[in-house]
Amino acid sequence: MNMTWLRSVLCFLLFVFSCSAFSQNRVVVVPLAGDDGPQYMGAWQEGASYKESDVVEEGGSSYIALINHNADLSNIPPDLDTWGLVAASGANGMPGQDGADGAPGPKGDTGEQGPIGLTGATGATGPAGMKGDTGDTGPAGPQGETGATGPQGDTGAQGPIGLTGATGPTQFDVCKDINGNHGAVINDVCLLSYDNTRTSNWSAATSSCATIGGDLCSTSQYARIRQALPSPTADLFFSSNPVWSEDFSDNDASAKSLFLNSSDDPTQSQVNSYACCGTLQPEPFRSAAQNISGITVNWVNTKLDTTFPAAARICSALGANLCSKSQYAAMQAGGVTANAFWSRDMSDNDSNLFDSVLGATTTDNPGLNDKYGFACCASSLPVDYSCPNGSTLSGTGICITETNEAEDSNFFEAAAACAVKNSDICSKSQMTIIRSLTPSLDGVATWTNDGADNDGLRAGGLISTQPNNPNPSTNDMGYVCCR
User: Most CB within 10 Å of its CB: which of 134, 342, 435, 445?
Assistant: First the structure.
């Protein structure tokens, strides 16, 4: 390089720098004439090619290229190997005056919802508004507790006597069979039919009574109808004919001869006379009866002061009958007990096994003049022979309310089960008909209302394998309930 030329350039640049102080540190480069002098290339640019003595501006200062090179970030001014400082940037000048406000910019987007501010102080109460419409009636509140009973008011004046009510069914009205045919009332006992020819075996006698809605009369009923008048010739069964009774006419020790005149332990093929008694109770006794543990009862006497004929007479006068053993068993739950009770079969108490039913002082084969307590029981069967809560056995008037073919009940359990149905355990005469029409009972031992005594293992209504003198507490059998 020509040193003379370089000195000229430097002198020129010194002049320029000196002048820049008077122009607010702005660098003004005036290129020399000729192609080989310094050339002002403007702002330094990466990737540009610079020749020696090219002048660029960077960061407010001017630099002169010392060598030919291609510009990159490794040799950006003020790199000392590549550039020489020509004029450093001057200090910042004084701030100029604020320019005029520009025109308002467009409205910005709505900002996000700010947080909820603190609750302000409660304002003053405003004036009362107009009264609103009455709302719908709300639901009723819960029932309040019953208040205390108020004082009893004064007794009102006696009202007028009411009209006389209709007369209830009398003893004659209810003494009729299921076909509406009236029977005869003898000493307050309803006699529906009888046969004194002494030609009927057990089966024929029981069937004859069942088909008209009656049952063979009990010992207590025979005690009334066979003694209608003092004279023996007034006996309905004159000539002292033996009769069938609902308990198979068992006459142990001939204690019942005056009423049954039957043999001890008869056979079913034996022929006797018989009478069919009705069971419907008339008014006013039906309405006056009380219910004791499911049994319809009109009279209870626990004093040991009454003979068998007298007890039978009192019960028949009430349109009832002496209670059966099974009815006494059921009434024990209602507190009816005594040391001795008369039952409709004259309290036959073989081996004293039924002391728990009839009382501890009831003897085996008691005499008719022994003095016991007694109760009068009546059938709850409606006077129209309908069978509520049960069914009438086809071709008969027997109303059955329950049948248990499982041999799982002692006498007390069977009696209680029937009493719940306002019924009694069926009699031997009823069971004879029921078994003949119910094959499912074949071979099933069943209780009867007299305790199912099976003397000689041949009693009617039972099966031959049932025990003689069963124990009411320990023997288990099936049962059928009759109303």
Answer: 342
Q: Which CATH class is domain 3-87?
A: mainly beta
Instruction: Note whether 3-87 and 288-378 share their fold.
Output: no
Confidence of residue 139 (pLDDT cuts 50, 70, 90): confident
3-state secondary structure labels for all residues of the chain: CCHHHHHHHHHHHHHHHHHHHHHCCCCCCCCCCCCCCCEEEEECCCCCEECCCEEEEECCEEEEECCCEECCCCCCCCCCCCEEEEECCCCCCCCCCCCCCCCCCCCCCCCCCCCCCCCCCCCCCCCCCCCCCCCCCCCCCCCCCCCCCCCCCCCCCCCCCCCCCCCCCCHHHHCECCCCCECEEECCEEEEEEEEEEEECHHHHHHHHHCCCCEECCHHHHHHHCCCCCCHHHCCCCCCCCEECCCCCCCHHHCCCCCCCCCCCCCCCCCEEEEEECCCCCCCHHHHCEEECCEEEEEEEEEEEECHHHHHHHHHHCCCEECCHHHHHHHHHHCCCCCCEECCCCCCCHHHCCHHHHCCCCCCCCCCCCCEEEEEEECCCCCCCCCCCCEECCCCCCEEEEEEEEEEECHHHHHHHHHHCCCEECCHHHHHHHHHHCHHHCCCCECCCCCCCCHHHCCCCCCCCCCCCCCCCCCCEEEEEEC
Output 94 or 429, whichever has higher pLDDT: 429
pLDDT digits (tens, 9 = 90+) for 4-33: 444 444 434 444 444 333 333 334 344 444
Q: Angle of helix 428-437 relative to helix 202-210, nearest 10 degrees?
A: 90
Over the stretch 372-423, which tens digit does the pLDDT of each residue have?
999 999 999 999 999 999 999 999 999 999 999 999 999 999 999 999 999 9
Annotated domain spans of the chain: 3-87, 171-277, 288-378, 391-482
* CA 270 – CA 267 distance, rounded (Å): 5
Q: What percentage of the chain carries pLDDT values higher than 70?
A: 86
Q: Which fold has domain 391-482?
A: Mannose-Binding Protein A; Chain A (3.10.100)
Q: For residue 323, what pLDDT band results from cuts at 50, 70 and 90?
A: very high
Residue 374 pairs in a beta bridge with: 301, 342
- The answer to whether 89 touches 59, Cβ cutoff 8 Å, is yes
CATH code for 288-378?
3.10.100.10
Q: How far apart are CA 412 and CA 97, in angstroms?
A: 127
